[in-house]
Amino acid sequence: MDLTRRSFFKASALALAGSMAYELSSASEAFAMDADDSWKLVNTEEYTNICCYCSGGCGVICSVRDGELINIEGDPDHVINEGGLCPKGATMFQLIKVVDDKTGEIIPNPNRVYNPMVRRPYSTEWEEITWEEAIDEICRHVKDTRDQYFIEKDEDGKTVNRLEAIGHLGGSQQNSEEEYLILKFMRSLGLVAVDNQARV
Ligand code: SF4
């Protein structure tokens, strides 16, 4: 066969294209998802959220199936963590569910606390109370403490209107506007010791 330089390159290009097409089709077959496969995240809805543990504010994807959270993982599109999570954040799913030591099944975390708990003075036991009771009790304690310890004037008679008997530590995931309102509220009670976990 009389193979010219031009026909040689043409034949080589065709052979290369054919080989690449074969490789790609083999690869896509290898990676093809079987619709019936028990892929962990099949038939889930994704919701983005933020890790609750520290001020880093890493983004996470929460996968939900039939109204039930089944997986949490780092969000690759999040500007802060780009998909990564530290060991603490990576175990966030265990707030809800854990693997049973004996059966290997995923079960609700038996240590999760679903209601407010209170340990009364001198008691060694935790007592479960309702949210209404918890809010009422907290309000009562704040009012009583403020009534008892509010300082209107200092030793020199200067007006200070402050309360040193209560401190407030905010959570790390409140946004600036929420923190602004919290700070205003605490200052209105006279609190001096106000800080936020995001700062530390
Ligand atoms: S994943 Fe780790 S670093 Fe990121 S917010 Fe959560 S606790 Fe902080």
From TrEMBL:
GO terms of biological process kind: anaerobic respiration
Subcellular location, record wording: Cell envelope
Keyword Oxidoreductase: yes
GO cellular component: cell envelope
Main location: other
Gene Ontology molecular-function annotations: 4 iron, 4 sulfur cluster binding; electron transfer activity; molybdenum ion binding; oxidoreductase activity
SMART domains cross-referenced by the UniProt entry: Molybdop_Fe4S4
Keyword Oxidoreductase tagged: yes
Residue intervals of the 4Fe-4S Mo/W bis-MGD-type domain: 44-100
Cofactor: [4Fe-4S] cluster
UniProt keyword annotations, A-Z: 4Fe-4S, Iron, Iron-sulfur, Metal-binding, Oxidoreductase
InterPro entries hit by this protein: Mopterin_OxRdtase_4Fe-4S_dom, TAT_signal
Coiled coil stretches, renumbered: none
Domain of life: Bacteria
Family (UniProt): Belongs to the prokaryotic molybdopterin-containing oxidoreductase family.
Protein name per Swiss-Prot or TrEMBL: Formate dehydrogenase major subunit
Species name: Denitrobacterium detoxificans
Source lineage: Bacteria, Bacillati, Actinomycetota, Coriobacteriia, Eggerthellales
